[in-house]
Write a structure and sequence with these properties.
- The protein has 200 residues and is mainly beta.
- It has a single domain, classed as Hexapeptide repeat proteins (UDP N-Acetylglucosamine Acyltransferase, domain 1).
- 8% of the residues lie in helices and 33% in strands.
- It is built from 1 helix and 22 strands.
- It has one helix at 13-29, and strands spanning 35-36, 40-43, 48-49, 55-56, 60-64, 73-75, 80-81, 86-89, 93-95, 100-101, 106-108, 110-112, 132-134, 137-139, 144-145, 150-151, 156-157, 162-163, 168-169, 177-180, 185-191, 196-199.
- The strands form 4 sheets. It has a 9-stranded mixed β-sheet.
- β20 (177-180) and β21 (185-191) form a beta hairpin.
- It is globular and about 55 Å long.
Length: 200
């Protein structure tokens, strides 16, 4: 495996021109953001704290469902979001600093209906008529979420963790761990003593 310390973006002339246009639109839409690539859908903007230096890919959907007294989606500093990402809050989603979110990721803190416990919803009720259930999501600093992953309601992803591509996160992820699979399970943890990722 080769290691490269210098990252090169290799933008072509057309993409450079598009990024300049996106930068102008970004500063008009969300002045604290670094770069928002369009098209993008933003619903409930007044309940979203975009943090500082947010970067998004194209065709993202960031939405708040409901009315709140404070932001329901909170971004930290230097959050980088790939293409086709959907972040949807009906209660609270908090994303920490220096978080990298790959393309086609879904982060959603709500669900139509309940399918566990005592009061479960019936399949005879149309899904869009079932009650909405919510539980907050916390994504701590320095987290990397791989392409196509799903982060479900009520989970916390600990500091410095990695969520593998296409993983479905249904329960809390410990700090400094790598998870993968459906449902996501801990595959490796970072050993502070010898500075390496070790299989669990």
């Amino acid at each position: 495996m080769n290691r490269q310390n210098v990252r090169s973006v290799n933008y072509g002339l057309v993409e450079i021109i598009w990024n300049v246009l996106f930068l102008i639109r970004t500063k008009l839409l969300v002045s604290s953001a670094r770069l928002i690539r369009f098209p993008i859908t933003i619903r409930g903007k007044k309940w979203i704290d975009f943090g500082k230096r947010l970067t998004t890919g194209r065709r993202c959907r960031i939405e708040v469902n409901g009315i709140f007294d404070e932001p329901a989606i909170v971004f930290g500093e230097n959050v980088n979001v790939g293409d086709d990402v959907r972040i949807a809050a009906a209660e609270k989603i908090k994303i920490g600093n220096n978080v990298l979110i790959g393309s086609k990721v879904l982060v959603i803190d709500n669900s139509h209906g309940s399918y566990n416990g005592d009061a479960q919803d019936s399949p005879d009720t149309p899904p869009n008529q079932r009650p909405i259930y919510t539980a907050p999501i916390v994504i701590e600093d320095n987290v990397w979420i791989g392409e196509g992953a799903i982060v479900q309601m009520g989970v916390s992803i600990g500091y410095g963790s990695i969520v593998g591509s296409n993983a479905v996160v249904t329960k809390n992820v410990p700090p400094k761990s790598i998870v993968g699979g459906v449902p996501a399970m801990v595959l490796k943890k970072y050993n502070e003593t010898n500075c390496s990722w070790e299989k669990v």
